[in-house]
Design goal:
Helix content is about 50%, strand content about 10%. It has 27 helices and 19 strands. It comes from Adhaeribacter swui.
Length: about 725
């Protein structure tokens, strides 16, 4: 194993940046060239069918068969002109990754002649084998049928892989009985729900608003590790994170990596990756070094939430493939290295009208500020009422390692809005009931005109907040880097929409009692501000003081996934989702079971890898080095040179190694037995909790002794690539 390590290091020392063919075109000239977007549709379809398709996309209505046939014909012509030979329904099952089954355009006609064929029926629906995807008991394994159905709101695209080109058609994935088996279906339902609820509230302010869209910008953090070093670390290969590894003398403490000069090999990768992403219509704009060594970030412009999620899933796939070309491995795990920053996927969320207004952006006129406050206060109230559900939406075995660490928000859900807005809300809260006389300046008396017009520039950021307002959007910072953002966004869309319905009911009730509309709106805003005050926090989310204060406020601090997932199926969550048609009870409980099983399997795999590395790599290496020291002492004694401090310190080293070998062996054996006990537990929740509380408890004990041995054993003998090598070689 040590030989493999040094061969890997030698390879890295000879790596050069990969030559990337640079296009001479401006980005605007090749952006989306591999996407069957609106322009491609317009040029390949008849005007009548194109208008019908656009209307269906805009209003969310069903695409009729004739239009589907026209789209399929145009899509086939376009894809073949690009060199595509196959097509696939591209979907997002509950594995967290994307899935695809390729079919050829090739077919035989009645005369046995080869033709290219692609009908509307193949575009609209396929029947992939659903037996091996997570389903949480929705369907039996022997009942393999599932359906993928075309999502016309997300354009088809061509994926290039080593010269082969495949037309990818974004779809939903459902069981033959109709239950959702994917992340996209509930996301689409939540977006429709939010649209309907938000439009109703917008009618108070602008009768021209007929549609509201959730927009999303997803920042993606990741690590790059040389491929050879990655392959010399079985734990990285099998689990995505390092189960052992002593912290290097230099990590991120000098803060010299953040926004620093991008290393040449990494820069070549970024250029290549960005070109591929841009051709696929992913609007990347930002690239930079992140805080930890060998950690980086990319970020796109805002898009409709459904498309943004699709693009982020596609981006992770493209990133991994391009990294391979550059002899890198892209690490998307939330915490691949202990002691340095983990990686998040900050979801920047806003809501906009079809009249071009961002509802979370204060305006220049008092009426616009009142509208802003209505949506702003409703969002905060929604987070307050469903903070635990939001915590469950970002829960995973990976994210448990990150939440609450020095670079990530805590597991306590809170909202940061900045000192200026905090002062505005406090003043509005403390205003007494206001009577409006004829000729009074309504907005002045209400205090609405005091919201700064340049709030975007005056709102600070708080890296310790899981849900922060940043001027014209909310940033859900607690989402993990490997997660499918649909989970968090489905929850956020749903809780805000539900709160907007409550807002309108209460305002209408006051108006029916004779209240002036604006006064009624302010009274409900004030009610929400008072009721949700406990969720607002402007301080340091990392501090023990905040944990104590949060407890006094009644806010939950659930650090581990099995317990956090309870909130997904609480009576409150069930009522929210079922009443509003986002999930059925069957779907909700199925997802709960799937997430519990995913957690268990990840900890189970980590435990197996940890035991294997400890028993078959670490302990033999430590014993071999211990024998070297013993033979050294024997040699000294044979020469009559066994006196003095050197001999004593060597004996102490032998004892030190023996101590930690015994600790490792004892705890690995106990962990294996604990795993056997856990595996016999039938209830998914109890099994997950047992893996969390009992099996996982051995990890840190074993790791501590392994990391101590890493410092003791001769560097030439140590089998595992070290942190200083993975984090500082590129």
């Amino acid at each position: 194993m040590a030989v493999l390590r040094f061969k890997a290091l030698e390879l890295v020392d000879h790596r050069k940046p990969v030559d990337v063919p640079l296009t001479t075109q401006k980005i605007s000239e090749y952006f989306g060239k591999n996407v069957f977007g609106m322009e491609a549709m317009r040029t390949t379809m008849s005007g009548e069918y194109f208008k019908k398709l656009v209307a269906s996309i805009k209003h969310g209505t069903k695409v009729d068969r004739a239009v589907a046939d026209a789209v399929a014909a145009a899509m086939k012509t376009w894809a073949l002109s690009k060199g595509a030979t196959h097509y696939t329904h591209w979907f997002q099952p509950l594995t967290g990754a994307t899935a695809e089954k390729h079919d050829s355009f090739f077919d035989l006609n009645n005369d046995g002649q080869a033709i290219e064929n692609f009908k509307g029926s193949a575009l609209v629906q396929q029947e992939p084998d659903a037996s091996s995807f997570p389903n949480g008991g929705i369907r039996n394994t022997f009942e393999a049928r599932g359906y993928t159905a075309w999502d016309p709101t997300s354009p088809a695209f061509i994926m290039e892989t080593y010269g082969a080109k495949t037309l990818c058609i974004p779809t939903v994935f459902v069981a033959y009985t109709g239950e959702a088996l994917d992340y996209k279906t509930p996301l689409l339902k939540s977006l429709t729900f939010l649209d309907q609820a938000a439009v109703e509230v917008c009618q108070y302010f602008d009768k021209d608003v007929t549609r509201v869209t959730a927009t999303l910008g997803i920042e993606q953090e990741y690590f790059l590790v040389d491929k050879a070093l990655y392959e010399a670390r079985p734990d990285l290969v099998m689990t995505g994170r390092t189960l052992f590894g002593h912290a290097p003398a230099k990590g991120q403490q000098l803060e010299d990596h953040y926004f620093g000069s991008i290393p040449p090999r990494v820069h070549a990768f970024m250029v290549d990756f960005e070109q591929e992403a841009l051709k696929l219509g992913i609007p990347l704009r930002t690239r930079h070094n992140e805080v930890a060594p060998n950690q980086f970030e990319c970020a796109p412009t805002f898009e409709d939430a459904n498309l943004a999620v699709d693009h982020n899933q596609l981006l992770m796939d493209v990133m991994s493939k391009v990294a391979e070309r550059h002899n890198f491995k892209a690490l998307l795990h939330e915490k691949p290295f202990k002691g340095v920053n983990g990686s998040g996927k900050h979801n920047n969320w806003a809501i906009s009208t079809d009249t071009g207004v961002n509802l979370l952006s204060p305006g220049k006129r008092p009426k616009e500020n009142l509208q802003f406050l209505a949506f702003f206060a409703s969002t905060i109230m929604a987070v307050y009422k469903h903070a635990d559900l939001m915590r469950s939406s970002i829960a995973s075995a990976n994210n448990d390692h990150r939440l609450g660490a020095n670079e990530a928000p805590p597991a306590i859900m809170s909202v940061f809005i900045g000192s200026q807005l905090d002062a505005v809300l406090n003043e509005l809260e403390n205003n007494s009931q206001i009577s409006i006389d004829k000729g009074d300046n309504l907005y002045l008396k209400l205090g609405i005109d005091k919201i700064p017009e340049i709030l975007l520039d005056n709102t600070d950021r708080n890296r310790t907040s899981p849900f922060a307002f940043t001027g014209n959007k909310f940033e859900f910072r607690a989402v993990g880097s490997s997660a499918n953002s649909s989970s968090a966004m489905t929850v956020l869309n749903s809780i805000v929409a539900d709160q907007l319905i409550d807002f309108k009911k209460k305002v209408d009730a006051l108006i029916d009692k004779g209240k002036k509309k604006e006064v009624a709106i302010v009274e409900i805003i004030r009610e929400y501000i008072k009721a949700s005050k406990a969720i607002r926090f402007e301080g340091n989310g990392y501090s023990q003081d905040w944990e104590d204060e949060a407890a006094s406020r009644g806010l939950s601090n659930v650090r581990t996934t099995p317990q956090a997932l309870d909130f997904l199926v609480s009576p409150t969550s069930e009522d929210l989702f079922i009443r509003n048609g986002i999930f059925s009870k069957v779907e909700l409980h199925a997802r709960h079971e799937i997430l519990l099983e995913e957690y268990t399997k990840k900890i189970q795999i980590e435990a197996r890898v940890l035991g294997d590395l400890a028993n078959n790599h670490v302990i033999p290496t430590a014993v071999a080095y211990q024998n070297k020291l013993i033979n050294n002492i024997k040699g000294l004694r044979e020469l009559g040179l066994d006196q003095g401090e050197y001999t004593e310190s060597t004996i102490e080293s032998i004892k030190f190694i023996s101590k930690h070998i015994n600790i490792i062996k004892k705890n690995v054996e106990e962990m294996i037995e604990a795993r056997k006990v856990a595996n016999k537990i039938e209830d998914a929740r109890e099994r997950a909790i047992n893996y969390c509380d009992v099996v996982r408890a051995y990890f840190d004990v074993i790791r501590y002794s392994v990391d101590k041995l890493e410092l003791m054993v001769d560097d030439e003998d140590w089998p595992l690539v070290k942190y200083r090598e993975m984090l500082f070689k590129h």
